[in-house]
Amino acid sequence: MAQTGPGLTGAPQLLRAYDAVFDARFEDVPQLLTRTCPPAPSEACQVLDAVALWWQIQIDPLNKARDQEFQSKVDASIAATDAWAKRDPQRAEAWFYVGGAYGARAQWRVLRGQRLGAARDGKRIKDAFEQALALDPRLEEAWFGIGLYHYYAAVAPGAAKVLRWLLLLPGGNKTEGLKEMLRARDNGQLLRDEADYQLQVIDLWYEKQPARALDLLAGLHDRHPRNPHFLQLIAEVQDVYLHDPTASVRSWQALLDAARARRVALPELAETRARLGLALQLDRLFETDEAIEHLRAVIAGKPAAPYGAVAQAQLQLARARDRMSDPAYGLSIDGWRALGRGDLMNASRALSQSLALKPDDSVTQYRQAQLLLAQKNDAAALAILEGIVRARAATPPTIYASACVDAARVYEGQRATARAIELYRIARGVFGADQRTKDLADRSLARLAAL
Fold first, then answer.
1. How confident is the model at residue 154 (pLDDT cuts 50, 70, 90)?
2. How far apart are CA 126 and CA 13, in angstroms?
3. What's the pTM value of the predicted model, to 2 decimals?
4. In this predicted model, which residue has the larger pLDDT, 108 or 178?
5. Given 3.50.50.60, 1.25.40.10, 1.10.3720.10, 2.10.110.10, which CATH number is that of 11-224?
6. pLDDT at position 151, please?
7. Superfamily covering domain 361-449
């Protein structure tokens, strides 16, 4: 029997179930599927059921406890959709779900390093979606799988291309693949979120467009704030690709706050992952004492997920304790904490002792300058800040940009506008600095230009 109408049967119900998957409302998926099929075909719900389990695996990818169940479900969905397409070969929708079922298995096989099986599934995905479009050119969702195949076939490394040749798989086209994926994203009924998720991977790994990937992830997080995976990925992109540890700290803290308030799914997993991420970034930002508190909380909680969390926390804790064993480092943090409390006397004592041990440490020098500013000793603070500015190669970027901005503010107070402008311009160009510091420099330049 030929398909009687364009697109996917029961699309609104399918979209509600798919939204639940992206919301990480996995407990709601079974009930939603019972209300989805019918009107949607039962095979569609089999595929979505496997996709829901795949997303649970993605959120904790090192944990293989669900692998056997996923294999069983996805293989059953492949068998069911293949049988449907054989019974009704003129129905485009049947072929679409064949491609969707193989697509779920291919992603899992890539995660588990099963390259040969993933390549074979990739060919089946492409063939199924092409058949769907031949029968119904209006089935826009099918372009997504074709585009994915074309893109990855074009950018695959040499070894994968040899594998493709051995399997007689057709080649790809990167540009056309992107166009096809965007077409499905913009015109399809169902796959916008899936398209955005896959496109952010492409932007990071192959297109070298981390800012664009971050925008896609921000959109996913806005539409699906209950899913902790998107905020985690935002924090990781800010760290690994944008080299902005302070922005990463803010994202990890947002995830921790949401987890503790139980505003996200899997709150225990999300809290653990947030604490591990915070600890890593805080240690890099010379806030190792706070990092240690997060790591101790993870170890004390003995979380079952994410997989390997306690071992990771123990490893990070050993490194952090080793760093804190340096007397100069510990005194610098003690002085910084005292300054944060407004205890200027103890801050002065600890920072002076730290600098006596390591006089060239730019982080402690910066903290000493902040103490002097709090003591209204702008001249002495400015001398230290200018020394930090001159020692750019030895200064962490977050500290360097902040020193430039703080010195510029002092110069503004002295009406030395030319030097202030010069320092603001330097600050906004520091790679790896806090974006907020660079934004402040930009606003200050705009303000001075308007005078």
1. confident
2. 26
3. 0.91
4. 108
5. 1.25.40.10
6. 85
7. Tetratricopeptide repeat domain (1.25.40.10)
